[in-house]
Amino acid sequence: MIRERLKAAMIAGMKAGEKDKVATIRLIQSEVKNKDIEARTGGPVEDDDAHVTSVLQKMVKQRRESVEMYRKGGAEDRALAEEAEIAVIEEFLPAQMSDEDAEAAVRAIVAETGASSMKDMGTVMGQVRARHGATIEPAKASALAKKALLGQ
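The chain above was modelled as a monomer; its predicted structure follows.
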């Protein structure tokens, strides 16, 4: 389980004196706890790893956007700090599909669902999330689905 890996990494990081890594893991745990509190009203979470993975993916997306903004603003030191956080967060994400495998998976879902236009984007993305949610980053899946639906 990802939560157990987070706890073990936190302990190891504290023992090794890796302050930046420990701070990032604490941020992750805080975000997961916030998501847990949000999810309480919706009933029990079925797949805890998928729950935590969605939090991690959101955190990576936010940091990538921050890196881009910092670079545009000329704050290279802050961009590097965000990239260091991304590296720590990605340690806990399940292995991501290669670009070729992800494209093949999305194209297979498009073919199976009979999707033929952008109106079917929601159906395709729902299937992608259900089958490959942890292994394909949502932004990448969306771009691949759009490409497949537009026939490119």
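The mean pLDDT is 89.
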